[in-house]
Amino acid sequence: MHKGSRLNHSSGRLKKALLYLFGIFIGIILFFCICEAMLQSVYLIRDFKKPKTHYVLQEKYKSPFLYKYKASAIAYPVDTATKINNFSMRRTEDISEVPEENITRILSYGDSIGLGVWMNDGQDYATFLEKLLNQDSSHRYEVLNTARGCCPSIYALHLKSDIMQFKPQIVIMEIELSNDLTDEVLVHYKGKDEFGLP
């Protein structure tokens, strides 16, 4: 009897400790969800109050999330001036629509990290990757920072036309788990293609 009561007492303490740890875990998750929601709302309020003179909405989809930067312009996605080339991509040089024969073209999609917000021209990861690939190679690579969108579904919508237009051999998508997936919740569009898909 004495041994059994000690065992019951130990298992009761273990249950309490596990419930306590579970409560802490749920509290941490809720804290980060609330922080993310607050940051998203501040970002949306701040962003939608700014005049949108540096990009063009893609009217087919009737969504504020589906846009391209104006071609051959200087854009301000945040407070840093960003050079946009002749095909609405973040790049200081203009490009041809179809890659030259000796060039492997890579299209790069991503959110603010992929775009390189708060970075000066030439400091985004697409530019660094292009320099790295061309460093010791007889073959040339062209990595194009498409600067289109904030989450995977938006990248997919742009890919439909970008692959046909720019003929890349490789496509890279930078997906950040901390906010790209939550951005999916905010995305809405009403347009559909010939297959009934967004």
Describe the structure.
By secondary structure, the protein is α/β, with parallel strands linked by helices. It has two domains: 1-49; 55-186, no CATH class. It has five helices and seven strands. The protein has helices at residues 2-49, 112-115, 125-135, 152-166, 180-186; strands at 55-57, 67-69, 73-75, 82-84, 103-110, 140-145, 170-174. The strands form three sheets. A three-stranded parallel beta sheet has the order 6-5-7. The chain is elongated and about 80 Å long. The model has no long low-confidence stretch (mean pLDDT 80).
Please outline the helices and strands.
Layout: H1 2-49, E1 55-57, E2 67-69, E3 73-75, E4 82-84, E5 103-110, H2 112-115, H3 125-135, E6 140-145, H4 152-166, E7 170-174, H5 180-186
Parallel strand pairs: 5-6, 5-7
Antiparallel strand pairs: 1-2, 3-4
Look at the structure and give the mean pLDDT. 80
Gap between N and C termini, in Å? Answer: 68 Å
Individual helix count = 5
**What Rg is obtained from the alpha carbons, in whole angstroms?**
24 Å
Relative helix content: 40-55%
Compressed to H and E, one letter per element, the order equals HEEEEEHHEHEH
Q: Give the DSSP E fraction (strand runs of 2 or more residues).
A: 15-25%
- Tally the beta strands: 7
Main sheet record = 3 strands, parallel
Number of domains: 2
Low-confidence stretches: none
Q: Strand arrangement, largest sheet?
A: 6-5-7
This entry's quaternary arrangement is single chain
Structural class: alpha/beta
